[in-house]
Design brief:
The chain has about 350 residues and is α/β, with parallel strands linked by helices. The protein folds into 2 domains: about 170 residues, Response regulator (Rossmann fold), CATH 3.40.50.2300; about 120 residues, no CATH class. The strands form 3 sheets. A 6-stranded mixed beta sheet has the order 2-3-1-4-5-6, with helices on both faces. Strands 7, 9, 11, 12 and 13 form a 5-stranded mixed beta sheet that branches. Strands 8-10 form a two-stranded antiparallel ribbon. Helix 5 links the parallel strand 5 and strand 6. The N and C termini lie far apart (about 55 Å). The relative contact order is 0.10.
Length: about 350
């Protein structure tokens, strides 16, 4: 029995939707019946397996500057087409487009329970933001091989829409999602480990079963003042917040941080603080916030002259499962605020 032809929606930015370049980047969400622009490549890749019933388009600037408005509008346009599958992109190395593709796919999955797939270059910020929630096929940096890249997206998308088994990232070509699955191996762990070691020692190629993340090295900056004359700030990723969590910092995979005044405080009253962090047992910190944010000791150092001054604002977020992209963004924003305030050094406490 032949498989049912699927209804597919393609999501494009203004450029790939053939509305224009940067001069049209502010265009809001709109829909075109059938396959338009680069969606024609999606239709070609689908063949008889499905039909692009609608092309949804949104300008890069509009999606990036008004995501809280744009994404719900786009979800509504997708829903109206009653698709079985959403194909977003590929976005290649276009950052704003990639983030929009990931955000829309995540929202469609959550709200419409529809299969989605997107694709982009590994350096696109959308990868780190959404690869764990959205199947994201790795593509080249430029659209010179559009049809070939789209065929890979469609092949994976069809499997997802049909509920077929999806292979591992290396086999299917998508970015690892952080999902661990048990498989039956042909040799014991000890035998596999020794085999990999022998291959490594002999200079032969081998693939680790537990790939290590490659984080860029960050050199420690040099303190240009003596501590006796330095302004020191307290920053933490351990999740300390005022009672009620006024900034709604997420318990994991945080996207926000808080800035909390300690002006006039020589210590922190446990009754005034809470901790939403889900990455460790926060009981001891809730009993005594100084176990995470040592305002009491820092004030003693200030009063004794061991440090010049304690900065009157504590910055806090939650570090568990927070993406590298969000961590880097929050770090840059906090660093800029500290620099503007004349802070010389930071004590960063973690869990």
């Amino acid at each position: 029995m032949a498989a049912r032809s699927l209804r597919v929606v393609s999501f494009l930015n203004q450029f790939f939707g053939q509305l224009g370049g940067e001069e049209k980047a502010g265009v809001g969400p709109l829909v075109i019946d059938g396959a338009a622009g680069a969606a024609r490549a999606v239709q070609q890749a689908l063949g008889d397996a499905g039909t692009v019933v609608a092309t949804v388009i949104c300008g890069d600037n509009h999606a990036a500057e008004q995501p809280d408005r744009a994404i719900p509008e786009l979800v509504a346009l997708v829903a109206a087409a009653r698709p079985d599958l959403l194909v977003a992109g590929p976005a290649f190395l276009a950052g704003r487009y990639g983030v929009a593709c990931g955000a829309l796919c995540a929202a469609v999955q959550a709200e419409l329970k529809i299969a989605t797939v997107t694709g982009m270059h590994r350096e696109n910020p959308g990868v780190e933001l959404y690869r764990r929630r959205v199947y994201t096929v790795e593509t080249g940096a430029e659209a010179t091989r559009m049809l070939a890249e789209v065929k890979r997206l469609v092949a994976l998308g069809l499997k997802l829409a049909r509920g077929e088994a999806v292979g591992p990232p290396a086999a299917e070509g998508y970015f690892a999602r952080g999902v661990t699955k048990n498989v039956v191996a042909g040799a014991s762990a000890a035998e596999r480990a020794v085999s990999m070691l022998l291959d490594k020692l002999a200079g032969r190629p081998f693939v680790s079963e537990v790939p290590r993340p490659a984080f860029p090295p960050v050199p420690a900056p040099r303190l240009v003042k003596t501590l006796e004359g330095a302004t020191i700030a307290l920053v933490t990723d351990g999740g300390l917040v005022p009672r009620g969590n006024p900034d709604a910092i997420e318990a994991l995979n945080a996207t926000r941080y808080g800035a909390y005044s300690i002006e006039g405080k020589s210590s922190l009253d446990a009754a005034q603080y809470d901790n939403p962090h889900r990455g460790y047992d926060t009981t001891w910190v809730k009993q005594d916030p100084h176990r995470l944010v040592p305002v009491d000791v820092a004030r003693e150092l200030e009063q004794s002259g061991a440090i010049g001054k304690l900065h009157e604002t504590v910055y806090s977020t939650v570090g568990v499962a927070t993406t590298l992209a969000h961590s880097a963004r929050m770090g840059r924003e906090i660093a800029e605020k500290l620099r503007e305030a004349g802070v010389d050094a930071v004590i960063l406490t973690s869990t």
